Amino acid sequence: MNFSAISRVLFLFFFLTVLRAGAQTASPAAGGTVTGKLVDAATNQPLDFASVSLTNKADKTNKGIQTDLNGNFKVGGLKAGTYLFKATFIGYLTYTRDSIRITAAGNTINLGSVKVKAAKGVLKEVVVTAQRSQIKLSTDKKVFSVDQSLVSQGGSATDLLTNVPSVQVDVDGNVNLRGSSNVRVLINGKPSAISGGSVSDILQSIPASAIQNIEVITNPSSKYDAEGQSGIINIVLKRNAQLGFNGSASATVGTQNTYNGSLNLAYQTSKVNIFGNYSYRKANRVGNGYTNRITYPGTDSARYQNQESDQTFKFNSHNIRTGIDINLSPKTVLTLSDNINIRNRDRFQNGLTSITSRNVLLQQLSQNNTSYNSGTNVDLNADFSHKFKKQGQELTANVGYSTEKENGDEYLNTLYNFYTGTRRDSTFKQNNFTDQKQRNLNLQADYTMPLGKESKLEAGYRTTINRNDNDYRAFVPGNSLTDQFLFDPTRSNHFIYNEQVHAVYGNYQRQFGKFGVQVGARLEDAHIRTRLVDSVQQYKQDYFRVYPSVFLSDKITENQTLQLSYTRRVTRPRDRQLSPFLDRSDPLNYQQGNPNLRPEDTHAFELSYINYWQAVTLTSSLYYRYTNNSIQQVRKPINTQLTTTVFQNVGSAANAGYELIAKVTASSKLDLTGNVNVYYRNIKGDPALFVQSTSGYAFNGNLTANIKPVKKLGIQLRGDYQGKQVIAQGYSKALYGLDGGVRYDLTKTLNVSVNARDIFNSRRFGSIIDNTGTAIPYTSESYRRFATRTVMFTVAYRFGGSNGEQKRQKRDQDNGGGGNPDDMNPGGGANIR
């Protein structure tokens, strides 16, 4: 294992050292202090990330904090006076305690264990109106409450992901986590058909209004799926948690022919909870780009190829989610749910390529391509959970079945103009039709057994069966005199991908005072079969692997935790990467998969530090990932004009970096959430593949500001920057952008908002390729833009609830809350395996 990259980031350890030393040596804030611990009144389980506030009854000033992982809170810096204490947590009654007195001497008051009752049958009389924190940080995962993202309202799941710290989205809609595209994307904690090759299309078609939370797990333990080099991103869809009938609706209109709408309906009694969501999305996105290539650079015979393109995408989608929770007993729940996604994605592309040598125009290619794509996803799930009499003992199970059908019609038209010798023209036409079908079956069970007050055992089983049938048929003109197209078997491809993964895991956790240990292992048996239907070519991969994980944690103080972890992970190549078919749709850039690709094997180390101050929530991480059999896209020149891009295992790759995520609540009118990720990437090349070893530093960051100048008005600004980073045969260029949104509450249940994405039209994805070490040396520079600036206007309305609820809402807001009319609790995302 090449650990040289670790030494390049050791200097970053001083961040943790300074933070820890500063936190321990800082003098306490002047004034009084109130401490305590929030627990469930029935089970005495701590309530982590609950909201605690103290309001001065004289001047109405307010100070608040979130409880830590063990439910503890400490609010300091309180001036002399009488305070109202309030604790709120989703699904629980609001707890209040009056007449807490702070003296001029700055006394400390310990409230002890504050027992908060679950809402249950009286929930209809309680409305939690305090604005939920947009970010919840822990050593295990990070939860982002994206339904409060003003800059993404009216957008898609892709737009929301661009706002999540640690996550980047490239020009094609592919998701990256900490600079790696090998990330596992789940819906409600389950793989579903989104694990196929159309992840970017599906994310584009899921409206942001249908999403409640996004969970990011950068170094998952053995109880989680081992797939995904850089971790797991889980998208949690909305559902209901309020008794009675309630719901919300929203409508959006914007530039580039953008129209969105959503409707949430729910009805809950003590026995059943019925919920549903319908979302519609229609939008155009205008993009453009260029590629400048020089073959034989620096010589008199250098040939210049300049390619410009413009494209328009048209999206149209419907997303329907319904479900029912059935309380079979007070401790047993059966949930039946479905999610249906119906989408259309059309693309219209025009391009012009000019080829010159010695300032003489040799050839021009004019492209006019059109494609029409439609897809349908259906996800069906049955979830079962049972809590035993023993506290903490629980059994959960899931049976999930999902299907995806994707159809595409593509019409390619290229006009060639030759200017050397006698002027001549020719036309290339090809019509492609794709039928893709995918099925995914998920069977799993998870069991948690406490072994005492300080230890517990987790165990589970999971089987996934996935089949992807991709039938690609190409038709070319029969002759130059007619428009009749004939089937061309040499350009057609029918590829089938079958995968079965069987897994069992076990995790043991033990607490030794403030020091905790968790060790586990996941055993996976994978069987992959691929074949070209119209040929005798068949390929298979069978491998059994053990994926261990070790987590060590140290609770430095009540508000500080340090964790060191190691996990092993895998990235299995997918159908598009494995198919040996040579795609010649682009006459200048062929693409081909590699059926002999081996899965990537990743060893991940992470040192995390988390701290809760009164106004600051902070987590920082040092991480290192070493990957064997790194999969890269390798470009090879065929001649002076044509290249082929092939997926290859190019040896190894290493990423080492430092990440900081912090939320600062400067005042009741301003809070800031920032993320900085600095990392070093080292890719070991392979001379046989004409890939040189390359390395370099890169960084990305973003900053979100929430401003509330007056009670009913909210303003959000978000800027991001992605620095230059190395890739297999060159580097990608830096990019940056700014988004903004404004929201105004007309009433307690009605609000309007406007937002703009990429305000300055600056987000362009660029790259430099240096391929001068090949038999036909060349360099190239390219820029592409997926979409230009968009502006959207949204109206949102919440209905349901009694007058008594609205009165209570107003009272809570007057005491410092900040209502959220779209607030609906998440569901289905807790059991990620």
Helices and strands, with pairings:
Layout: H1 4-7, H2 13-25, E1 32-40, E2 51-56, E3 62-66, E4 72-78, E5 81-88, E6 95-102, E7 108-116, E8 135-137, E9 142-144, H3 157-161, E10 167-169, E11 175-177, E12 184-187, H4 199-205, E13 211-217, E14 232-237, E15 244-254, E16 258-268, E17 272-295, E18 303-329, E19 332-357, E20 360-387, E21 394-418, E22 424-450, E23 455-477, E24 485-487, E25 493-512, E26 515-532, E27 538-557, E28 560-571, H5 575-578, E29 582-583, E30 589-592, E31 600-612, E32 616-628, E33 631-637, E34 643-649, E35 652-667, E36 670-683, E37 694-710, E38 713-722, E39 725-727, E40 730-732, E41 735-745, E42 750-757, E43 765-771, E44 778-785, E45 790-800, H6 803-814
Parallel strand pairs: 1-7, 12-14, 30-34
Antiparallel strand pairs: 1-4, 2-3, 2-5, 5-6, 8-9, 9-13, 10-11, 13-14, 15-16, 15-45, 16-17, 17-18, 17-44, 18-19, 19-20, 20-21, 21-22, 22-23, 23-24, 23-25, 25-26, 26-27, 27-28, 28-31, 29-30, 31-32, 32-35, 33-34, 35-36, 36-37, 37-38, 38-41, 39-40, 40-43, 41-42, 42-45, 43-44
Describe the overall structure.
By secondary structure, the chain is mainly beta. The chain folds into two domains: 88 residues, Carboxypeptidase-like, regulatory domain (Immunoglobulin-like, Sandwich), CATH 2.60.40; 554 residues, Beta Barrel (Maltoporin, Chain A). It is 5% helix and 61% strand. It has six helices and 45 strands. It has a 22-stranded antiparallel beta barrel. A five-stranded mixed beta sheet has the order 8-9-13-14-12, with no helix packed on it. Strands 3-2-5-6 form a four-stranded antiparallel beta sheet, with no helix packed on it. Strand 35 and strand 36 form a beta hairpin. The longest helix is centred in the first third of the chain and has 13 residues. It is globular. The N terminus and C terminus are likely disordered.
